[in-house]
């Protein structure tokens, strides 16, 4: 007879299912599942289409699942998890509510967001420092999302080429 899942196990399984996973044991596996889904369902790819509302819902669910599973993987690596360490997980988004947060491959950059109406790129670094880069073309953002290292790409192709400002620190 199969044992009933605890509430925590059921929640973990539900988040895995959103990303098409049965389980996840590494950040690399989590990223491999997350990245193609967020590319497929990013609302900017559905702008002006009937599927836009569905894309917003799917992208939100994908990001929520990613954040939950990433936090769960980080907890497994920490011997003691405190309220303070849990609060470091990025889930507050960016100062612009129109921007969807996209988590990137592990580096000094946690996540990026892009407003395709204003062409503002937001970059959240470890420590939750957020910078806004102005007038960044969508092609640069697409290249950033496909780069092997988001941190290196931002350093080489964004930092000195676009006007930037530090945003309010997100905790």
Automatic annotation (TrEMBL):
CDD domains: DnaJ (cd06257)
Domain of life: Bacteria
Entries under InterPro entries matching the protein: DnaJ_domain, J_dom_sf, KTSC_dom
Pfam families, per the entry: DnaJ, KTSC
Residue ranges annotated for the J domain, each copy included: 14-95
Name recorded for this polypeptide: KTSC domain-containing protein
Lineage: Bacteria, Pseudomonadati, Gemmatimonadota, Gemmatimonadia, Gemmatimonadales
